[in-house]
Amino acid sequence: MSREELPVFRLVDLRKIYGQGEAAVHALRGVDLTVAEGELLVLLGPSGSGKSTLLNVLGGLDRPSSGSCFFRESDLANAADAEVTQYRRRHVGFVFQFYNLIASLTAQENVELVTEVSTEPMPASEALELVGLGKRLHHFPAQLSGGEQQRVAIARAIAKRPTVLLCDEPTGALDVATGVHVLEAIVTANNKLGTTTLLITHNADIARIGDRVVRFADGHIRSIEANERRIPPSELHW
Asked: Is residue 132 part of a domain?
C-alpha cells in the first residue's frame, strides 16, 4: 500500500485511563476508527464522552494507556517523545473553543508566530485571506469580533499547511451567525487545502457539514454514520 493510500489515522482498541484504582476514569474504552485522507469527520456527543481525550491523543498532546494510534505508518502510541513532538509541529493544526491570541500582536503577527517555525508555511496574509480576513491583517484582537478572532486562530492553525486540523468546539462560545462564518472557514480549509479535519461539537445540526459523524457515549463510539451529502454551513440552523 502506498503512502497516499494509507489512512491518515487508524485506531485499534484505543484506551485512555486517568488515575488508578477506584478513582480511575476510563476516558476511552476501546476505540476503533479509521480516518481517510482529506475527510471531514464530526465527533458528536455529550461532555465527558471521550471526544476531547481522543482529539488530544490524535494531536500528540496526550498518550493512550493502551492500543494503537497510527498516523499513516507510524504508531504514535509507541513512538519516542521526540518523534511525537515532530509530528505535532509538522502535521497538526489545533483550533480550540477559546482563541488564545496574543493581544499585543495584530492578526497577521499572530499567524506569523506559526509560520516562522514551520518548514513550508503559507504567507500569513494568504491564510487570513482564506478565512475571509484579508482586510483585517493589521487589526489587534481587541478590534475584532469573537468570530473574527476565531477565524484568526483557524488561519494560524492552517498557515503551516498541516496534514490534520483538529477543532475542539470551535463555535462553542459563538452565536449562530458568527459560528456559521467560523465553520465556513474550516470547510474552506478542508476543501481547498485537502486538510483532514476532525471537529468536535455537541450540536447535532453542525454534524451535517461532515463526511461522516462519529457519535460518542461514555468513552465508546456508539455509531458511525455517513452523511448523504455535506450541508454548507450557511444552510445550518441551531
From this structure: yes
Number of other CB atoms surrounding residue 183 within 10 Å: 23
How many residues can be counted in the chain? 238
The angle that helices 176-193 and 146-158 make with each other, rounded to 10 degrees, is 20
pLDDT by residue (tens digit) across 56-113?
999 999 999 999 999 999 999 999 999 999 999 999 999 998 889 999 999 999 999 9
Domain interval for residue 197? 37-61+91-235
Taking Cα atoms as reference points, which of 172, 187, 173 lies closest to residue 234?
Answer: 187
Residue 79 CB-density burial (10 A; 0-12 exposed, 13-18 middle, 19+ buried): middle
Sheet strand arrangement including 220-226? 92-95, 164-168, 196-201, 40-44, 212-217, 220-226
The predicted-structure confidence for 100-122, as pLDDT tens digits, reads as follows 999 999 999 999 998 877 888 99
CATH of the domain at 54: 3.40.50.300
